[in-house]
Amino acid sequence: MRSGKWKHGIYMLAALGMLAYALPRLELGSAWTAATVFGVLWSALALLVIAANLRVLISDRERERKRVSAIRRQQAYQTGKRLEHRQTRQSR
């Protein structure tokens, strides 16, 4: 793991551990009581934390930044071309 990513691995393992510990104890199969709603929401939050940390571990931030920068440059170029086209059309 690259520097700084180890903490996300620990956070993800902690969330997985809490989820594995809590799932058998939560009342998820009964009617929609307060305990069931709490269990569903707590499980969803735990899965969200796991997904966020997994994304950080998998993603390549530098490549993502370059891709976003290239998209922004392309959008700026297209906007400039559109404005240039409008100006030449209006001057006729």
Would you kindly provide a brief summary of this structure?
By secondary structure, this protein is mainly alpha-helical. The protein has 3 helices and no strands.
Structural overview:
There is one protein chain. This protein is mostly helical. It is built from 3 helices and no strands. It folds into 2 domains: 1-59; 61-92. It has helices at residues 6-22, 34-58, 61-90. α1 runs antiparallel to α2 (34-58). The model has no long low-confidence stretch (mean pLDDT 89). The chain crosses the membrane at residues 9-26, 32-58. Residues 69-92 are annotated as: Disordered. Keywords: Membrane, Transmembrane, Transmembrane helix.
Tally of individual helices: 3
| Helix content, binned percent | over 70%
Radius of gyration: 24 Å
Largest sheet: none
Span between N and C termini?
60 Å
Mean pLDDT: 89
What is the number of beta strands? 0
Strand fraction equals under 5%
Sequence of secondary-structure elements: HHH
Would you spell out the secondary-structure blueprint of this structure?
Blueprint: H1 6-22, H2 34-58, H3 61-90
Helix pairs in contact: 1-2
